[in-house]
Amino acid sequence: MQFIDDLDRIVSLKTFPPKRIISVVPSITELLYDLGLEEEIVGITKFCVFPEVIYRTKPRIGGTKKLDIDKIKSLHPDLIIANKEENQKEDIELLSSSFPTYVSDIKLFKDAIEKIKIIGDITNKGDEAKSMLKTIEASFLKLPTFPTKPKVAYMIWKDPIMVAGGDTYISDLLNQAGFENAFASYSRYPCITQADIEKARVDLIFLSSEPFPFKERDIAYFEALISGARATLVDGTMFSWYGSRLLLAPTYFLNLRQEFNI
Question: For the domain bounded by 151-259, which CATH number is listed?
Fold first, then answer.
């Protein structure tokens, strides 16, 4: 069985459906579990914290940026699922030389939808994936058309200050949620200054729970730093995890808007 991944590489599965899957992407680990593949998952990263039962019971093979290649080899996977942005190119190339390695590259909401379907096909869970997608797509369609879209600075790091730019999955999810990315003209995850934020006329500052663990004290810090802007902590998984976490995202987005009465 063969599939084409997002790097346009042919991924040939010697075993179909795969029985020993390693996920080196936290959102994909959660997706695999929700597709009913708990038994097939044989390795995860230390950042694959959801669901808790997987985090507690499955072997960990390092972090997303620093994989334990020897341990991965010892687990004899018949499928590895990775991501272009979250994993190191050198690790992916090394693993691909020994094991079927499917690499995703997610930039938009529609990419995430497509990937759920494809991973369902790869793992022989196509029916489960279709059911999941039906629920996700219906929930997003129910989101109201918002009359105004507050301008948001989505913070991912504090020192230096880094935000999500316009060509990111986070930016597209902000738009889906009824917000406008104040830094949509920037690429990837730029470092910015206080002056940049003020120039962008930011309404809201979202302090993501990942990769930098912003705390309550950071709310006051940024509100004092940027006059007139309101800051809040946000669950980064709702904006950056592109698997079954999308089942929860629409309700989260609505509640977030209600928090600011917008």
Answer: 3.40.50.1980
